[in-house]
């Protein structure tokens, strides 16, 4: 019998009726002969409520609460509740289910509370229970340090828990049940002709997740890629039997027979463009700018230094997450004299649109198609960045949907067979 | 430095503002030089919500969920949340606080899930933290089995957790902060002249708790008595400084200088009177009746066999909790032929009123005063039961308040100095 990991997100655990539906899906896989481990999120909204309480407790004296191990004690409780409820429901359907909390498995993590990383999952207890025919329910998002303190992985960490458990027990696959029925060529709310992908490679999924597709958490994709755990994303709003051959499988590129040149169009509005005007055109100046930003933990995404005004001065342009824009601008102003630039401009009305596809490696003209499609719609490209399998452009935010639809059509994504 | 245990109930943990007030009370005791361990309940209402969810999960197929270890996984989460929030609040006030969950302490319990009993609390971890100057916050109501499964103690179990922690760390006292400001001579809602007792003996408190006073859970008083842990009951709706010399101390009888003959009047409406008419007056018949009830886990309180109809037949009268009345009556009817009685009567319009006091041991005429006071008000006594330090009477429920007030006056309880 093969082992299978199934993961249910917050909307799939939102109330008892949804928990019962999840239980039916789990039971069906057990009936089909799988040894099943289930990873669950907290009821949707519950984690937000718990976090708000910790904010309130933390604000008693105005001090920060980040990295507080007591934050994890509070917030980890949400998944404990749904895990117990799912186990009870399965038992009442006649299945032998058992909850194993983070400290019981154990899921050993680093001690960076609130943002811990999974270090190790000794598989013995999980395997013993699975081999004894038990359905093991594990709360996602939580773990325990070597010294026995509860940790949480940071928001969205339940996907990562599921993949890590799948790797630990050598599961044939990790099925992520969520509120969408798979990975699409782009967001169907923007392009109604978006098609569900039957398969996508780890590398493409990783780019898509990083570039704004919210289907899977980036870290979970990294882990699946590193551990070679096939992941299937599919809808939890189905009954047993309806989930056969559904969803999108995220797997090794080698296992994808019909490769697309471009698999998807991703976009993100969480962008801000910062321009430093009149920067001395000297060695080390750019390095100084980005060193300051790195020290302040501000992530810089796209960088371009192109608009020279004269031989001695250049303009330095970079993008950061929109929520970091003010902090980045304030930081730059505080070192204006030290670095020596004339002025700073912050533009939050920008969006990043990207095309992703492993086929780019072997096909030429992909970028040309992109630029032409955007040009035909009168969309100005402000910044370009590329990797081996993606091209991103920064554009005026107002053109986001237009750009997405234009690119979706240009690469024939509306004709991909699901 | 002496060790002190402080316990806060659900109303004292109901929201962040109340948690902050509890934190101020804890901080004040730490400032006064105590090494403090705190035991907390879940936010009021939270446990009911969690239990309702487990009921829902359990009802998926209509099966019972009692004794389900997954019930405990779900329900124990409520105290985990308040423990973490209180620790965070204390930290933000500048105190070194740490939560230790049931499995971290560990609080070792039996494996009767949902109704576990504390077996052992190895004090090493608690003592190490306390001696290092940490305020240790322990969620009440929860523990862990020897095999590492989460347990809960049953409703009201947080008082018991607090007393057990106090015994484990040899605390000078266990302060139970609750929504009343002490133990009263009777319920102030019934008799406005009720007075707060400065001290009450363990034995009296145990009788009061068993007889319907809801201030402390019976099991916690038993434990405090067995372990000789002084308990103080006081209001959590005070600010630091206001709690000095407040509340009621439950302690050894020897430590009470000014002993009262009667310390309190307790009453319970959770009573039902069952009469079996025309029972054969033979050896073994009564034993058969009570054996049947015991097998069905129905607790019998008062028993009297007095109303003989003739030499061969008697009427057997006993009382049970009102919620057990129907089950007891149905059970008796099912064995009517076997035991051989004529008819059964069930009366749910009864109440039990009791006087409690260690002074009864050495004073005569206490019962006489009770019967006379009730007689003067025209209250008929249906059944009487006594122990060394209490006398209980069963009366028509309609006379409950009248009886309580009459007895309160008859023993001069309105003149006790708090």
TrEMBL record, chains A, B:
UniProt-recorded Gene Ontology molecular function terms: aspartate kinase activity
Catalytic activity annotation: L-aspartate + ATP = 4-phospho-L-aspartate + ADP
Keyword Cell membrane: no
CDD domains: AAK_AKii-LysC-BS (cd04261), ACT_AK-LysC-DapG-like_2 (cd04923), ACT_AKii-LysC-BS-like_1 (cd04913)
Record-listed E.C. numbers: 2.7.2.4
Pfam families: AA_kinase (PF00696), ACT (PF01842), ACT_9 (PF22468)
InterPro entries: AceGlu_kinase-like_sf (IPR036393), ACT-like_dom_sf (IPR045865), ACT_Aspartokinase (IPR054352), ACT_dom (IPR002912), AKii-LysC-BS (IPR041740), Asp/Glu/Uridylate_kinase (IPR001048), Asp_kin_monofn (IPR005260), Asp_kinase (IPR001341)
Keywords: Amino-acid biosynthesis, ATP-binding, Kinase, Lysine biosynthesis, Nucleotide-binding, Transferase
PROSITE patterns: ACT, ASPARTOKINASE
Family: Belongs to the aspartokinase family.
Name recorded for this polypeptide: Aspartokinase
């Amino acid at each position: 019998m093969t082992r299978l990991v199934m993961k249910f997100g917050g909307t799939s655990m939102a109330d008892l009726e949804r928990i019962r539906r999840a239980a039916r899906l789990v039971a069906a896989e057990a009936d089909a002969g799988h040894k099943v481990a289930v990873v669950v999120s907290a009821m949707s909204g519950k984690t937000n409520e718990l976090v708000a309480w910790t904010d309130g407790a933390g604000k008693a004296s105005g001090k920060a609460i980040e990295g507080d191990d007591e934050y994890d004690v509070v917030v980890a409780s949400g998944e404990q509740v749904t895990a117990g409820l799912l186990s009870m429901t399965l038992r009442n359907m006649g299945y032998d289910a058992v909850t194993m909390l983070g400290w019981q498995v154990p899921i050993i993590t680093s001690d960076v509370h609130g943002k811990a990383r999974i270090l190790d999952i000794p598989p013995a207890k999980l395997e013993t229970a699975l081999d004894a025919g038990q359905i093991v329910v594990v709360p996602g998002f939580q773990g325990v340090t070597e010294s026995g303190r509860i940790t949480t992985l940071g928001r969205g960490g339940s996907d990562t828990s599921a993949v890590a458990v799948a790797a630990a027990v050598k599961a044939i696959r990790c099925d992520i049940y969520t509120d969408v029925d798979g990975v699409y060529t782009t967001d169907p709310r923007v392009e109604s002709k978006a098609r569900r992908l039957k398969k996508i490679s780890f590398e493409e999924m990783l780019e898509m997740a990083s570039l704004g597709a919210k289907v899977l958490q980036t870290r979970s994709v990294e882990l699946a890629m590193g551990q070679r755990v096939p992941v299937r994303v599919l809808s939890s709003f189905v009954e047993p039997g309806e989930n056969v051959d559904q969803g999108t499988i995220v797997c090794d590129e080698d296992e994808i027979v019909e490769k697309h040149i471009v698999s998807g169009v991703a976009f993100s509005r969480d962008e801000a463009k910062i321009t430093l005007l009149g920067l001395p055109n000297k060695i080390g100046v750019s390095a100084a700018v980005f060193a300051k930003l790195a020290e302040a933990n501000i992530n810089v995404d796209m960088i371009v230094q192109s608009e020279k005004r004269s031989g001695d001065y250049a303009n330095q342009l970079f993008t950061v997450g929109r929520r970091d824009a003010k902090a980045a601008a304030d930081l730059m102003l505080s070192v204006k004299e030290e670095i020596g630039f004339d002025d700073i401009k912050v533009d939050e009305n920008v969006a990043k649109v990207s095309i992703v596809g492993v086929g780019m490696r072997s096909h030429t003209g992909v970028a040309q198609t992109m630029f032409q499609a955007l040009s035909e719609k009168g969309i100005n490209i402000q910044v370009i960045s590329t990797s081996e399998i993606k091209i991103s452009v920064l554009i005026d935010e107002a053109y986001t949907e237009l750009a997405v639809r234009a690119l979706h059509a240009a690469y024939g994504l509306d004709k991909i067979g699901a």
